[in-house]
Amino acid sequence: MSSPRSTLLWGVLVPPLVALYFVYTLQLHVIVPELTDIKEYPGLFLKVFFYVFKPPLGSAGYEDLFQKIRSGDTREPFVRHVVAVGDLHGDLPNARKVLQFSGVTDDFGNWTGHADFFVQTGDIIDRGDDTIALFDWMDALRGQAAATGGSVLTHLGNHEWMNVIGVSELKAFSTVIIFTTFATGDWRYVYPTEIKTFGTSAARQKMLSTGRIGRSWAMNYTTTSRLPLHPSLGPPNTPFPPESKELHYQKEDSELDISYYYSTNEPLSHSAISFVHGGLSPTYGGLTPFPSRINELSDSLLRKLQHRVQPPPHPPNRYPGLPLSATQAEIELYQANGPLWYRGWATDPEEKVCVDVEKVLAKTGTRRMVMGHTPDFEGIVARCSGKIIIIDTGISHAYGGVLSALSIHYTLTPVGNHEEQRWVEKEVVSALYPDRQEVLVVDEREVVGDFRAS
Questions:
Q1: Could you confirm whether the keyword Transmembrane helix appears in this record (predicted)?
Q2: 405-415/388-390 β-pairing
């Protein structure tokens, strides 16, 4: 005979619990009709979780998520943000203003993490007194960025090289090499007040050769860079053509049709940007493999110059000349047609540069080229639908130009069924100023392939 307590349990408590179970099951089937299909069970737990806890995705977000769960689509959108600035010429206050309004740094000059890459295209030195402070700041940002997964890419401009090589600005445009016109330490654009920040001329020479700044130049600065927009192309400065391709070993004097540098099987092969101070001339002989060929020459010549006995600076002393060990290729690196001095992308007519640029982009594995060197005091210049972008706007007070930065937002977004492997690739390139943002280019294209970021 059952006890009164068990009768109460079965007669009073159990029926409501059973009824609640059936009501809840019915509600769950209405909410999650996939319960009737065992194939849908892998996504059931997530759907119940989202129903119970309701994280703030919105109805469209829920539907997208559940669609991905049902289809087995593991693709994720990829985003990369790049900010670049041109010549700074010894002006720390203006440089800090630019990096702050472009979101690279905060009010205290520290890395914010809002950009994945910050790029400076050279000519940090000369025409101002803040040489030491600017180079120290670049190195500090480099460390802060690396600690949060970001990167700082810095370049040597013609003025950095003028201080360590010393070709006069007039003679740099001569195609005839006369060694008596070269010097180590062309200081014609160095202010006496800037020298005082080093202490003495000798101390300045030492710091730019084997001292703190010189060592940073050797370790952290290149003459040019290739920045892939998607990680499937490798890290910054992965050479193009890749070493796995026969084109990587093609001699520069063997002229090929630009179609050889593209492949329908690799639709992202040129999803990259080149950065350089002067420009990558279409007739320069060291473009490929890019950027490794140029940077190897740059490293070699810088090493020879920094570790020789330093001659007295010009002026007032005479030009002592390049090292006798400088190779022809190293000499050509610094000539008017080389990447430090070339100005054709800024000065040649539109019909010429828009033809020439296609060849250079094809050979360097890039979609657009960004450079400084030739200032436009009104703003950043984009030519040929943004394939050529010139970002020197005279930021330094020595010029009185405008404060500016270049912003590049890149996205690769999966679309359609994952089995089709369709993606939409988009670049939004903008000029940033203290009071406004101007969109220069919006490029969008559909590509097919497996581009999941590793």
A1: yes
A2: unpaired
Beta-bridge partner residues of 80: 410
**CA nearest to 438, candidates 385, 388, 382, 399:** 382
* Angstrom distance (rounded) from CA 187 to CA 174: 20
Rounded to whole angstroms, how far apart are CA atoms 314 and 307? 18
CA distance 340 to 159: 9
Residues of the chain with CATH 3.60.21.10: 78-448
The residue written with tokens 């003025």 in the block is 159
Q: Which residues in 229-340 belong to E strands, given as ranges?
A: 272-276
Tokens at 176, concatenated: 């005839």
Q: Higher-confidence residue: 310 or 377? A: 377
Query: Taking a C-beta distance cutoff of 8 angstroms, is the pair 145, 116 a contact?
Result: no
Is 131:125 a contact under the CB 8 Å cutoff? yes
What's the average model confidence in pLDDT over 116-124? Answer: 98
- The CATH fold of domain 78-448: Purple Acid Phosphatase; chain A, domain 2 (3.60.21)
pLDDT at 41 over 60: no
- Kindly state the helix (H) or strand (E) to which residue 23 belongs, with its residue range: helix 14-31
- In this structure, which amino acid lies at residue 234? G
Locus of tokens 């003028």: 162
Nearest to 127 by CA among 171, 182, 192, 211: 192
